[in-house]
Design a protein that fits this description.
The structure is a homodimer of 222-residue chains.
Chain A: H1 16-30, E1 34-40, H2 46-57, E2 63-69, H3 75-83, E3 87-91, H4 100-108, E4 117-121, E5 138-144, H5 151-154, H6 156-160, E6 164-168, H7 180-190, E7 195-198, H8 207-219
Parallel strand pairs in A: 1-4, 1-5, 2-3, 2-4, 5-6, 6-7
Helix pairs in contact in A: 1-4, 2-3
Chain lengths: 222, 222
């Protein structure tokens, strides 16, 4: 007869992704880095906005970029490097979103101790990235006026867990049918009081409040 | 001792999705219907182009639409109904692409014998839909000029298995940086000789060759 033994039963309380994400967040914090996960549909102007942000902030903040891409072309990372920030590209090999481990691999290629801000440019997709914590301290969505004002109604999940929303390409407002108050009404339903900036990376209009927000977040780091 | 028996060994030759897709294709064919799967990024103008197509073709073809959506709002289906075509909406409950079974559910709600053309409006996404055969006879992609001319380079998979490509929102060309020959060079690399139409659903420019193509496909049905 075997002795009666107590077997510890441990419940799975988190996913492997969330475990790695939490570690990422700790590593960013230890290095005094504010990390932001920028999501958007393909062609919403993520890279244009990131490049403009680097140009306008590079004398005040040390910025690094982790570029998520489905293919291995370095179009976006090249533009970031040209703007004057270190960039690392992580390729998802066809996957439709970034995960925390992809971000960890990117983090290893950056000198985090020498940075204040890490921008993670997610893969262009309004659906799948919503469900994956990358370990950033904040999540942003860029929504371009050319995509239409119905996007919050049609892709609600991604609007729910945002810390900040950027409406982009406002220079094209005169040429498209985009009702800002209908758009904002949809956002308000999903994420009441969400901080929202209306911007044009092309003309620079509306960039300053977004830059101020980023600066305040980075200054809040230890 | 047991008798020696021959056990048939059957290899899995297809996925359940591809099996259902093949059946869908047979059902469309039996009903003399040409079915086309229209894919695009969010906000590329899928619904606008479908609505314009219905308006211009409804006196010559009997058209039905299967609308794929991640959420249950019926914004797109309402627009299609208004344009004068029967529409059925299939909700993916957050899934990032349509599959053959969603299309089958939609087909059941349409009177296929009374239709010539079924347009399947896929969920707005440039990555995941590429891998899912829906059982249509053709696959189309809509790429808007506002998304930028680098999309074939950055989302190559979806360009590879297309039968037809529609460049949309050409009325906005004067206001955006979009190099059509750079775009087409990327497409040619992935899908040589791909039939391409440049269109504006807003002004109607360039719609006729696309309508002629659809008419020729529908007339080719038994």
């Amino acid at each position: 007869m075997t002795e009666s033994r107590r077997i510890p039963i441990v419940e799975k309380i988190t996913s492997a992704n969330d475990f790695v994400a939490q570690e990422n967040r700790e590593i960013f914090k230890q290095n005094g880095v504010f990390a932001i996960n920028i999501m958007a549909a393909p062609g919403a102007g993520k890279t244009a906005l990131i490049v403009k942000t680097i140009e306008l902030l590079k004398n005040r903040l040390r910025i690094g970029v982790i570029e998520g891409d489905t293919a291995s072309v370095t179009i976006d990372a090249d533009r970031v490097l040209l703007a004057g920030a270190p960039a690392v590209q992580v390729t998802s090999k066809g996957e439709c979103h970034m995960d925390a481990l992809m971000v960890r691999e990117g983090m290893k290629q950056l000198d985090l101790a020498a940075l204040d801000l890490v921008i993670i440019e997610n893969i262009g997709n309004l659906i799948c990235p919503a469900g994956w914590d990358l370990g950033s301290q904040a999540c942003a969505l860029i929504s371009s006026v050319t995509e239409g004002d119905d996007k919050p109604y049609k892709y609600p999940a991604i609007y729910r867990n945002l810390d900040v929303l950027l409406v982009s390409k406002t220079d094209l407002l005169p040429y498209v049918d985009f009702n800002l108050s209908y758009f904002q009404q949809g956002v308000e339903m999903l994420n009441p009081g969400l901080i929202t900036f209306t911007t044009s990376a092309k003309t620079g209009d509306g960039m300053q409040p977004w830059l101020d927000w980023l600066l305040s977040k980075c200054q809040g780091q230890p």
